[in-house]
Task: structure prediction
Amino acid sequence: MPHLTLSSDEEILERIEKALGEAAASVLSQFIPGNVTAERKPSDGNLVTEADRSLNRVLQNFLLRDQEGWLSEESADDLTRRNKSRVWVVDPLDGTQEFIAGIPEWSISVAMVEHGKAIAGGVCNPATGEIFLGSRETGVTYNGYEAHASKKDCLDGAVVLASRSEVERGEWAHFQRESFAIHPVGSVAYKLARVAAGLADATWTLTPKNEWDVAAGAALVEAAGGHMYFLPNLRPAFNNKVTLLPGLFACGALLRDSITSLLCPHVEARSARWNDSK
Result:
């Protein structure tokens, strides 16, 4: 298990908590969710707002120190991060579509990655006042209280969080007849955090994600005693040269085999296309 070498888990989590608090206060004081102007990024066509950029500046000012790398959705990628043992992996505003629409399912996501492993993370939903913090040394807290991933051992009756946009596009139609409840939610970081805190039993997506989308969630899920894997069955690793990663699933410790079996027929086709595109 990796250990922090330059400072303790407690110091890292304190830095994350303070940065998330400052960022949440900043965004709520400057912007009104549901009443913001958005534009398309020239690089990939994704939506971006001034709130995304403002939050990025706040987080970088609070978090980044000498000898640490930085990877953020809203910063130009400096590949010197690859030479750093410790790297911040950040999504300043995950769930921009929900933020624009005024749906309270967006979040601020921060992870500390050491030697490729997400060892500590925090996710804050400013709209609901929720904050999830944790590391594999300290465990996970939800709004200051100890939290753990679900102990459910079968998918029958489970609560599974799905991407709101994927549901709207019909991509979850083939799961509608299963015996679990599907709850659409926006931000993937927020979904992973809720699984880590035991507020849902599982989440998955067959759609590739970027490192900044999921690094904090990976740290939280594993710190809470759950499982997170990139599809088809890969352990999470971060600070890669190419930041786009295959789909994923996250769940309580006892659901891994059930989810793997359920997703296998869907993953094989997706994995073939993913490998062909690399």
